[in-house]
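User: Could you go from structure to sequence for me? I need the amino acid at each position, not a summary. Structure tokens:
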């Protein structure tokens, strides 16, 4: 059997649902975040198994087990929980994953806490996931491990089933060599990557960073460049490596955007906002998303481009995330202070410049917001892809919104065809891009959006899965368009 028809076993840190304790038993709600938004429609479409942590400390034999099993018919795939103790969650998830790998892979060395106990917790939990994969997986399955929390799963799984077919996809960026070198466990991590059959990265830049690390640190590895897919051989192992930019379920966003429900919400929102134009930002609470820089850019735009005053509203949704990690609490305080300062300085009777919502919106409200917005403002300091940028394009069925996008989001490689690209460290540059978005005539806005929509439509989430699974099989579809890395055009004359 080939990976295209094999049963798919997705393995991720979190299951795609959140279990909630209610007064009368348990409830299920959909999980948040990019990985779930991307992969849930894939498994619903193909069926299979999803292995992950259910998000809270649980004991075997509880009523929650029935609730997890019940949803099968509705979802179309099975959920298999990996149970973790509170200490394991602290060391593995809050520790190694989110206080070491997450900041380091986003080039934020200053946010790392290289506590050695985190490393042991990471290994122990990865082994637990691997045991679960071996226990529930069959020989003929294709096992697809997701993201930085589970890099060591293949290494452990192979100790029990050497011939298992296991792929990995990294949703976050892969760092350059000099950043990876700071990691005390760099050798072990690199070796663990090589236990997979196929390694998927989001962009050519991440793939290049990974291959540079391999070439520099493991000179005995043979690297065969095969165009879209590169092969790395080391000892008895051969690993394929490639860039697979993750997409969204374009059709479902477009259909929902045209639905009566979303249209009605959009009209209601328009009535509440009055004639003002919305700049929308939607992010998990995270220091990689450039939220502080975004607020500073908006303040700068109001200071320097006075015509935006009383015309523009920054509607910022921040979804609570990783609330147990102290850095996230202080980031929240910084954001709220800035929102207060901007509103205190610029508000007039009837106009509040920043509308700040610290909560998760219902999908219908999120889509109505995307549809209404004049500008979507994505300012990530670094981001694997950034699905919000793609969702905004899919929902622009009228074709008039402008995407202002960070050069350091993976999405810049594909969306450079129409976005206004900005450096999130350049506050004035971002403020000027907002002004340009407001000044842009309708023809240009439409043309730019059409080009971006074409890419997001063609390279959707189903394209992504097929392309990945074909690469696992050793073939790359003919229609694969090689992605061009985004590099900013620098005008040398300016400096001479
Ligand atoms: C990781 C990587 C990569 C957000 N607010 C609400 C809401 N969302 C949904 C969005 C989107 C998802 O959450 C966020 O996805 P992103 O891609 O922007 O970011 P991460 O969560 O950091 O995801 C990222 C991704 O994995 C996939 O590979 O792109 O780079 O960091 O789908 O719509 N959904 C609802 N209400 C909200 O308030 N319903």
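Assistant: Here is the amino acid at each position, in order:
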């Amino acid at each position: 059997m080939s990976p295209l028809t094999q049963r798919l076993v997705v393995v991720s840190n979190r299951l795609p649902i959140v279990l909630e304790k209610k007064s009368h038993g348990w409830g299920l709600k959909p999980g948040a975040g990019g990985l779930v938004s991307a992969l849930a429609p894939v498994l619903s479409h193909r069926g299979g198994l999803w292995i992950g942590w259910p998000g809270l400390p649980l004991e075997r034999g509880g009523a929650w087990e029935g609730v997890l099993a019940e949803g099968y018919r509705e979802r179309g795939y099975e959920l298999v929980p990996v149970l973790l103790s509170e200490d394991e969650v602290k060391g593995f998830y809050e520790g190694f994953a989110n206080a070491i790998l997450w900041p380091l892979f986003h080039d934020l060395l200053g946010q790392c806490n290289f506590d050695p106990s985190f490393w042991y917790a990471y290994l122990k939990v990865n082994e637990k996931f691997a045991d679960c994969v071996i226990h529930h997986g069959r020989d003929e399955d294709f096992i697809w491990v997701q993201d930085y929390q589970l890099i060591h799963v293949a290494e452990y799984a192979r100790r029990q089933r050497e011939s298992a077919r296991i792929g990995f996809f990294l949703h976050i960026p892969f760092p350059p060599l000099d950043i990876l070198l700071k990691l005390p466990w760099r050798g072990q991590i690199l070796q663990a990557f090589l236990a997979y059959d196929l390694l998927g990265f989001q962009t050519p830049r991440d793939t290049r960073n990974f291959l540079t690390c391999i070439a520099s640190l493991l000179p005995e590895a043979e690297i065969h460049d095969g165009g879209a897919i590169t092969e790395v051989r080391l000892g008895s192992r051969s690993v394929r490596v490639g860039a697979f930019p993750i997409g969204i379920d374009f059709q479902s966003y477009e259909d929902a955007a045209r639905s009566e429900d979303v249209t009605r919400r959009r009209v209601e929102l328009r009535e509440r906002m009055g004639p003002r134009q919305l700049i929308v930002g939607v992010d998990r609470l995270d220091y990689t998303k450039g939220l502080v820089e975004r607020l500073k850019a908006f303040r700068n735009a109001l200071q320097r481009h006075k015509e935006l005053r009383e015309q523009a509203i920054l509607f910022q949704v921040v979804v609570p995330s990783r609330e147990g990690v102290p850095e996230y609490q202080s980031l929240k305080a910084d954001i709220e202070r800035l929102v207060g300062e901007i509103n205190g300085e610029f508000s007039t009777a009837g106009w509040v410049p920043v509308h700040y919502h610290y909560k998760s919106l219902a999908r219908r409200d999120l889509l109505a917001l995307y549809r209404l917005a004049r500008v979507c403002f994505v300012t990530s300091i670094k981001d694997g892809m950034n699905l919000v940028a793609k969702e905004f394009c899919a929902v622009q069925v009228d074709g008039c919104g402008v995407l202002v996008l960070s050069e350091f989001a993976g999405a810049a490689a594909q969306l450079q065809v129409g976005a206004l690209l900005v450096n999130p460290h350049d506050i004035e540059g971002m403020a000027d891009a907002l002004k340009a978005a407001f000044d842009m005539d309708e023809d240009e806005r439409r043309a730019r959006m059409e080009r971006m929509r074409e890419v997001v439509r063609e390279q959707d989430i189903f394209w992504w899965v097929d392309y990945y699974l074909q690469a696992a099989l050793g073939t790359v579809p003919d229609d694969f368009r090689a992605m061009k890395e985004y590099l900013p055009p620098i005008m040398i004359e300016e400096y001479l």
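One structural detail worth keeping in mind: The first helix runs from residue 34 to 46.
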